[in-house]
Amino acid sequence: MNSLEIIPQIGFGLWKVAPEDCPSLIVEAVRAGYRHFDCAADYGNEQAVGKGIADAISQGLCRREDLWITSKLWNTFHAQEHVEQACCKSLNDLGLDYLDLYLVHFPIALEYVPIETRYPPEWLFDPDAQNPVMHRAKVPLSDTWCGMEGLVAKGLTRQIGVCNYNSGLLHDLMSYARIAPSVLQIETHPYLTQEKLVRLAGDYDIHVTAFSPLGALSYVELGMAEKSESLLVAEPVTGAAALHHKTPAQILLRWGIQRGTSIIPKSSSADRMRENLAITDFTLTDQEMSAISALNKNRRFNDPGRFCEAAFNSFHPIYD
């Protein structure tokens, strides 16, 4: 049995990590002290992540039961009869018997694409079509959740949860869930504090994991953010960094865990990996926490209402 009862505060995110880099990065991250790895079918690198996990275990750096491995159900597998198939594919790619956490990646149901046709299926139904677009599927989120609950019953995942849900969807989910979600993973950082949603999750006893905890950093290269939007140069982040003799990135990550969320930064640098972990030996004052939270602009970088239309010729907002 997994000895972990709660998700580790600081994890390692694997979005946008090239498959050829994953095995060595996983081993280096485990050596640095990471035990929480955030994966997803849509990242297209789970086989390589699995090799890294196996390498770390074979080298005696950790045991499987020391690790917290998260993966995510992609949009094209939302139908109840496809949920287990998707989970088993991730398990097979990762080389695991069970997941610690399996999340619904987006509250977006897209038409099913068989694994043997294309994997990961991504967003477009037929990328080779003359005018490729997303194809919505008529699958209620309640059906998807029923499939997720079935995974727990079969021991394929220890816990289940959701990503990118808003308050309304969370209220709705809690009205029918037989197994309550244990985790809500959302984009949150000082430019998008999402205080009401974080508080609501707490009221439902749902833990919050913050993706993109450093804000714009992951999105500049994708054309989804401007360099001028970097939180690393924002006051009062830089002021707190100077006072605590920490980097601005460490201040942002500390802000994330100090407000009670777990965080999943990523880095290809061994030094940066260790730096991201070195945030438990200081505490931000209440004034510093408040001043950093006051940077909020409700600036969402990962917004399907913007990137789906720009990249996939399909307007599909999920946030108002």
- Note the main sheet: 8 strands, parallel
**Radius of gyration, rounded?**
19 Å
Mean pLDDT: 96
> What is the percent of helical residues?
25-40%
Number of strands: 8
User: Beta-strand level of the residues, as a percent range?
Assistant: 5-15%
CATH structural class = Alpha Beta
Work out the helix count: 11
CATH superfamily grouping: NADP-dependent oxidoreductase domain
Spell out the helices and strands N to C: EHEHEHEHEHEHEHHEHHH
Q: Can you put this structure into words, describing what you see?
A:
- The structure is a single chain.
- The chain is α/β, with parallel strands linked by helices.
- The protein has a single domain (12-312), classed as NADP-dependent oxidoreductase domain (TIM Barrel).
- It is 36% helix and 11% strand.
- The chain contains eleven helices and eight strands.
- The chain has helices at 22-32, 46-58, 80-94, 141-153, 167-176, 195-203, 237-244, 248-258, 270-277, 286-293, 304-312; strands spanning 12-13, 36-38, 68-73, 99-104, 157-163, 183-187, 207-211, 262-263.
- It has an eight-stranded parallel sheet.
- Helix 3 links the parallel strand 3 (68-73) and strand 4 (99-104).
- The longest helix has 15 residues, at 80-94.
- The N and C termini lie far apart (42 Å).
